[in-house]
Amino acid sequence: MRASIQGRFGDRLILVAVVALAICWLAPIFWVIGLSFKPNDVIMKTTGGLLSPPFTLKNYTDIIATSAVFGWMLNSAIVATGQTLLTLALSTLAGYGFARTDFPGKRLVFVAVLAGLAVPEQAIIVPLHTMFAEANLHNTYFGLIAPRLAVPFGVFLMTQYFRGIPAEIEEAAMLDNASRFKIFLRIVLPLSIPAQATLGIYTFLHAWNEYFWPLVSATKPEMYTLTIGLAATQTNFAQTEGIGFLMAQAVFAGLPVLILYLFFQRHIVTAVSGGFAK
After folding, report:
1. Transmembrane stretches, by residue range (predicted)?
2. Which class for 214: exposed (0-12), middle (13-18), buried (19 or more C-beta within 10 A)?
3. Cβ atoms within 10 A of the Cβ of 118, count?
């Protein structure tokens, strides 16, 4: 009885701690949403009283009427979607190759791929910028997408997931004279949807929020991604008279990622828990 009571107390204590951490994590988000509905002249006086009137929709109507945020969102959507699809294709093929095929030097190549996780982005930015400048690829969608297609984490994730799928499934298909590519396309690929959803969300979110490389590569306003565009509209906080408008842009920027996550939430939970779709 005492052990049962202690167990329930421990579970409740963990729940309270998780709720407290969730509140701390969500507080800045609610703060941004609250400021987006406040008039700018009120925000200039105080940023407190988020739940008290006055409220306004002017910040959001100004986005629709005058802001270039939709052009920046389009650029971010093209870059993030292209990067996500290509990363999924490359990481899935590489992961299946490492998990199910044997070739000379496989372990060495796999270690070399994982070593890419230890290389900081700042270490390669100068040669990367030089290569793309000489090829005249700056201020292009390809120039924004290509450097982020080599994702060691994606290869590792897909390799581990494919290794968790019973090999007997593929062996049974081989007995029916199915080719390796047919097995991969019709059997293994559908089973890997949870892992692909997880990698897709991770890649899309990283591409959507990417700041460093677009800051280097996109120098023309028409090629700005959302992060660069929003940063370009900001001035010194104390001198800014459009904080509410800026917060409304931030809410606009976060909505696509939130919708995408809610749509693939079930697959992400399945992949993280270590299972695979039946």
Report:
1. 12-34, 77-96, 108-129, 141-162, 183-205, 243-264
2. buried
3. 8
What is the spatial distance between Cα 265 and Cα 259, in angstroms, rounded to a whole number? 10
Tell me 105's DSSP state: T
CA separation for the pair 91, 150 (Å, rounded) = 8
This model's pTM is above 0.90: no
User: pLDDT digit string (tens) for 19-74?
Assistant: 899 888 888 888 888 888 888 777 777 766 667 778 888 888 877 776 677 888 89
Q: Tell me 53's DSSP state.
A: S
- Separation CA 161–CA 203 (nearest Å): 17
Q: What are phi and psi of 23, to 5 degrees?
A: -65, -45
Topology, domain 65-273: MetI-like fold (1.10.3720)
Q: Give, in order, the Cα–Cα distances in Å from 228 to each of 76, 137, 243, 278.
A: 10, 18, 17, 42
**Alpha carbon distance 125, 69 (integer Å):** 27
